[in-house]
Amino acid sequence: MSPSAKQIDKVFQQVISRNPGEHEFHQAVREVFDSLPTVLSRHPEYVEASILERLCEPERQIIFRIPWTDDAGTVHISRGFRVQYNSALGPYKGGLRFHPSVLLGTVKFLGFEQVFKNALTGLPIGGGKGGSDFDPKDRSDAEIMRFCQSFMTEAYRHLGDRVDVPAGDIGVGRREIGYLFGQYKRIANRYESGVITGKGVTWGGSLLRTEATGYGTVFFAEHMLRAAGTSFDGTTALVSGSGNVAIYAIEKVHELGGTVVGASDSSGSVYDPDGIDLDLLREVKEVSRARISSYAEQRPQAQYLEGTRVWAVAQKSAVDVALPCATQNELDEDDAATLISSGVTAVVEGANMPTTPEAIRRLREADVLFGPGKAANAGGVATSALEMQQNATRDSWSAEYTEQRLSEIMENVHTRCASTAEEYGIPGDYVAGANIAGFTQVADAMLAQGVI
Ligand code: NDP
Question: 444 and 328 in one domain?
């Protein structure tokens, strides 16, 4: 083991013992650390300034009680989190997740990833993440509103357009952002548009923010395919999930001439050999807020696969590209094997850490192109930063201009990952390229700002 690898291992053991039981956080740290031995050999100043140790300790972690009342008058207590992870490059920036699986370790893993992702966009934003173990499923609008108001009644004191700027994530979309912003405005008594992103376009939101993560993922994937001499045109694809990221990833794949034949939710998947009908999927998921099974009920040629991940569709159809867009660790080694047998040539992550380390290894052994979420899904936060720019200048840009900016940013993220991998002698390794490019930018800023 090289001295750098030994140093990395020592810090990683500290991470495990200081953060017991936080497996997703350990996984996210390990994945970045695995890319760093050569970086530390070239930059001993990072070791001298304990950059790794400092990066594994968030700047601030806030946990708070969220009391709220359901429609029947019963009082519930949820737990709220905001992890203000790293502000070397700008105000903390990252989404809020409302899902019953959310623990402090979940938020820390997402915050850690966010720091490097935000660096990759080249925009002046630090990293943070937050959320709650509140389960929004089957809750009425009034319950969602009361919950969001209670969340913000505590969270507002930690936020600000130059301090910490949240956005959406799983379970937090336009409706929730509206209720959260409304309560912030009421308590703070000022119209501070830049305090939260993902707002409606008529009240400070940016055109394209809703579409940005899904579109950006497909832009990034298209650059990877082009670098390998192909494109989306004529491909067959699978997308997991049917939420915000998934829907707009499907839309962009179709625009680029591909066909998405499978999508999913946490209950099951649909296989639609004619290609997912997006109008119907939107109606089911965004208007009726129903399960994806109801898509198959209304579409005779589609098949519902209860309790099955979407990757199983690769047993029924050849698949060229897979875009995991639902949640962490949703594509494991067996799923990777299924995709490889089906002829997959690229897996690109729209979600955060959806592919397990074993699956990534398996895909790379089979020479499948692999695009990590840290880079591929950066279009969401990049467009959030564009929303902050518009709020700061009290301006609003056209959809065409915003999409052009998003497309340029994703091209730059792709170029940075690819050229960094080349520079370190591992061409085509987008995981290492993303980790090293993001890490060195944050590390240099931390060095310049002293021991804080
Ligand atoms: P949504 O809540 O809009 O959609 C999430 C989708 O994933 C739903 O279809 C949901 O199904 C499914 N899902 C959630 N949890 C699970 C689970 N445990 N098992 C199987 N399926 C699950 O969230 P987003 O689309 O916004 O986020 C998806 C991913 O993209 C997340 O990893 C998020 O962190 C990441 N991301 C999102 C960004 C954004 O701008 N929104 C930006 C960058 C990354 P069901 O409805 O049944 O729960």
Answer: no
Mutate to test the pocket of ligand 1, among 132, 215, 265, 353 (most ligand atoms within 8 A of CB): 265
217 in contact with ligand 1, CB cutoff 6 A = no
Quote the pTM value.
0.97
Does any ligand 1 atom lie closer than 6 A to the CB of residue 240? Answer: no
Give the Cα separation of 243 and 265 in Å (integer): 8
Residue 224, phi then psi, degrees to nearest 5: -65, -45
Q: Is residue 437 part of a domain?
A: yes
| 80 within domain boundaries | yes
List, for residues 69-96, the tens digit of each pLDDT value: 999 999 999 999 999 999 999 999 999 9
Domain that holds residue 435: 1-57+428-452
Q: Is 371 helix (H, G, I), strand (E, B) or coil?
A: strand
* Residue 170 in contact with ligand 1 by CB distance below 6 A: yes
pLDDT per position as a tens digit, 260-296: 999 999 999 999 999 999 999 999 998 898 999 999 9
Give me the active site residues, please: 129
CATH number for the domain that contains residue 113: 3.40.50.10860
Average pLDDT over residues 96-116: 98
Nearest in space to 2 (alpha carbons), one of 51, 29, 37 = 37
- Same domain for 161 and 217, yes or no, is no
Per-residue pLDDT tens for 29-69? 999 999 999 999 999 999 999 999 999 999 999 999 999 99
Q: Whose CA is nearest to atom 47 of ligand 1?
A: 266
Ligand 1 mean position, distance from CA 64 (Å): 23
Choice from 266, 289, 355, 406 to test ligand 1 binding pocket (greatest atom count within 8 A of CB)? 266
Contact, 53 vs 29, CB < 8 A? no
Give every strand in the sheet of 127-132, ordered side by side.
60-69, 75-86, 127-132, 92-98, 164-167
Average pLDDT over residues 191-217: 97
Q: Specify whether 229 is located in the same domain as 367.
A: yes
Q: Is 118 in the pocket of ligand 1 (CB under 6 A)?
A: no
Q: Specify the residue for token string 């993922």.
A: 217
Q: Is the CB of 351 under 6 A from ligand 1?
A: yes
Domain boundary, last residue among 127, 161, 191: 191
Of the three residues 191, 222, 251, the one that is the final residue of a domain is 191
Same domain, 230 and 365: yes
